[in-house]
């Protein structure tokens, strides 16, 4: 009989608690560290609740906080409202643990409002592994004046690999905003710390001063007493507050990740900020001059489609960490809802986390990142079907049958026609890719072609993930789109269409696509993860077994499905008793 890793984890949690009580002579009431599965329930009929994306048992979730790897266990902390399916006061740090970043056990909250410096809410922050191997959390507290201050929390018992209890530092708050660098209500989300060559720790904090968004650098020798650098580490005009900043090195020599503190000629650095006003995460690749405490980005923020984003759909407040177990950098992102607050209250929950992504520097361009779903998600693959060498003539559509289309993983490689003779001309200056993506049914020459996901049998509902190829003055570019305009018959939804450009290699003449479909979320990775688009959709017809998947070509020239593989994805073990065994596809 196969025993799941999550079941083993739950047994270990129970055994550890029992041994603790034995050691204490059972003098005190036994503590329960896993969430009660009967207390936390959502309504039964849940066509949009995901099966292999991380969600808490119920209520609101937003930012991933300080994910980390400690003593063989992955930890995910997240912003959570335990009292409602909407955002509000009383935000806590939810906490779950895993051996593989896919199957999870929910623990009790790690950090909750309790003191004057965080009595309103415990907002986002990060975890850092100190030089002695001990983890520490820095988080933003909303104090009794509704000012934003930075606080520390440490594990109560370091011998517990699940780190189920956390205690707050006696010197909290350790950082408070000063008028010359930040507004008291826009000073939040400390980053994971890095350790400099001078022996000092450094963090950056998101802030706003006037209408300038900025990240502010602090230094410390002991992680408790912090000194402000008055010059912003990174700043942009007319953007409003920077949220959830991240700063880390990436290797120039391959896909492996490196520790956050690494400085050498073999790495470049990435600075990421989230602009609340736009609800997008932007990243900048560049050079870190540690001696001058400066980061020089390859390109400045322009507020146009030229700016680099992790994801051109719904993906915000992201956080990365270095996975020491597998020498990789892992990225999480919050994917919020596209329905109404009233819908969320009725569902009893809101918010999912993306599938964790491995992220590395594109060694071809050296100036952008590549993202790919972690390999562990492939362990959930079940039924498989494949298509090879199938020609898709203009206007054709082909169903991908034999799998559960509402819970699937699809990889497809398209072979393109001769680009010189067929690609349409396009002047990229001032072109908005989202406007070009407004309707995937509109015919071009090479494309649109791609997938129709979460489609009804009559195609009245579908989400089109598609490509189109253009010729510019000096290169070929692809347009990747995720068109939600026909995703549901419902009219009370955000059906924004997403799109972005990418370079096409005229020698290869291929475009690849991978899409992870999970009931109400579609994560798509174009060109091997060089461009990514995530979307939330809520079909009324194409749910569960009534969902279909198609490959289509609306261009006038043919494309070839060089190879396509599609798998049904089993349900991950996330949380508590009702998920303790996989559901079949």
UniProtKB/TrEMBL annotation:
Domain Glycosyl hydrolase family 32 C-terminal as annotated: residue spans: 376-567
Keyword check for NADP: no
InterPro entries: ConA-like_dom_sf (IPR013320), Fructan_Metab_Enzymes (IPR050551), Glyco_hydro_32 (IPR001362), Glyco_hydro_32_AS (IPR018053), Glyco_hydro_32_C (IPR013189), Glyco_hydro_32_N (IPR013148), Glyco_hydro_beta-prop_sf (IPR023296)
Keywords, in A-Z order: Glycosidase, Hydrolase, Signal
All copies of domain Glycosyl hydrolase family 32 N-terminal, residue ranges: 53-373
Secretion signal span: 1-25
Family statement drawn from the similarity comment of this UniProt entry: Belongs to the glycosyl hydrolase 32 family.
Protein name (record): Uncharacterized protein
Biological source species: Stylosanthes scabra
